[in-house]
């Protein structure tokens, strides 16, 4: 059986997000404040091998919308400096309050005051 030669299909790129650079008019109106950061980050994402398409861009925009407005800029800045393919929520530093030590052996003996807690 003979194999038929396969013709390479030439596909035209109609997706504006598939390029290394994006323009400010592609960014939704509610995220225009962060357009410079998004434009700067998009080539980093593409260079790292992230899929760049309209579907992925919409998912990223939805992810950014889920962040509190004060965290969006910092999340994009961290994605740029870290060379990340995705935008991640900020981790809030949580330092629990130190428990009060009421144990009897926790007292300190001083010559002036005796046992003090």
What does this structure look like?
The N and C termini lie far apart (93 Å). The radius of gyration is 27 Å and the shape is elongated. A two-stranded antiparallel sheet has the order 1-2. It is built from three helices and two strands. The protein has 117 residues and is mostly helical. The protein has helices spanning 35-47, 54-66, 69-82, and strands at residues 108-110, 114-116. Helices cover 34% and strands 5% of the residues. A hairpin with a 3-residue loop joins strand 1 (108-110) and strand 2 (114-116).
Helical proportion, percent range? 25-40%
Total beta strand runs? 2
Largest sheet: 2 strands, antiparallel
Across the major sheet, the strand order is: 1-2
Q: Looking at the chains present, what oligomeric state does this protein adopt?
A: single chain
Strand composition percent: 5-15%
- Mind telling me the C-alpha Rg? 27 Å
**pLDDT < 50 runs, ≥5 residues:** none
For the record, give the distance between the C-alpha atoms at the N and C termini, rounded to a whole number. Answer: 93 Å
Could you tell me the mean pLDDT?
83
Q: Tell me, what's the shape?
A: elongated
Give the helix tally. Answer: 3
> What are the secondary-structure elements, in order, as H or E?
HHHEE
Give the helix/strand class. mainly alpha
Label this structure with key terms.
117 residues, mainly alpha, two-stranded antiparallel sheet, 3 helices, 34% helix, 5% strand, elongated
Write a short abstract of this structure.
With 117 residues, this protein is mostly helical. It is 34% helix and 5% strand. The protein contains three helices and two strands.
């Amino acid at each position: 059986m003979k194999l038929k030669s396969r013709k390479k299909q030439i596909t035209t790129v109609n997706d504006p997000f598939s390029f290394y650079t994006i323009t400010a008019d592609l960014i939704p109106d509610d995220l225009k404040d962060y357009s410079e950061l998004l434009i700067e980050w998009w080539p980093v994402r593409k260079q790292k091998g992230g899929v760049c398409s309209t579907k992925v861009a919409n998912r990223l925009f939805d992810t950014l919308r889920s962040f509190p407005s004060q965290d969006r800029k910092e999340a994009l800045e961290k994605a740029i400096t870290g060379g990340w393919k995705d935008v991640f929520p900020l981790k809030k530093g949580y330092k629990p309050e130190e428990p009060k030590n009421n144990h009897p052996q926790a007292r300190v003996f001083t010559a002036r005051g005796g046992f003090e807690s």
